[in-house]
Model the fold of this input.
Amino acid sequence: MISPLLANLYLDSLDHQMAAAGWEMVRYADDFVILCRSAAEADAALAAVRAWVAAAGLTLHPEKTRIVYATQRGGFDFLGYHFERGMKWPREKSLKKLKEHVRAKTLRTDGRSLRAIVTDVNGTVRGWYGYFQYSKATAFAMVDGYVRRRMRSLLEKRRGHARQWLGAAHQRWQNKWFARRGLLSLAAAHEWTRTIVAIRTH
Done:
């Protein structure tokens, strides 16, 4: 792994070679995807990249380097996203990292006020949404559900109840209850974003 600046300088000639061949390459530092119109083009592009890399004294990542058919199941991960069948959503590693951050901010032993915790959690999920806002809508509903489960668990602990009470907690602290206290809903934010985009494009 080399720094993004060095990668941009070193791989500049590869960018030009791919463009000259008519292949569209999307690259950040040393991580890139080449978009092709057919299997034959994909084979040719991969062969060209292998040749360039060998001549430059570099190596390709053995697991990441592969041909993926965009219309089929499986897809690929790139820059934190998972791309598959014309859709994209946060890759598993990106979701896991977010959950770890939320978990650390919603410990059942946290003595801060609910307002302070909500503000802290909002900052984390808002920053995450800023990058992943172009994902399919179901990704945000899942994150919202996880955040609210963590919050309900914390509140139940403060009431002196054990974890098995979480079913009743959903009724006690419904989604609208959290909304009134300022907890950010990524599903709502995504719907608002889609509405603004629709207005601007009509």
Summary: The mean pLDDT is 90. The first strand starts at residue 24 and ends at 28. Residues 17 and 42 are 15 Å apart (CA to CA).
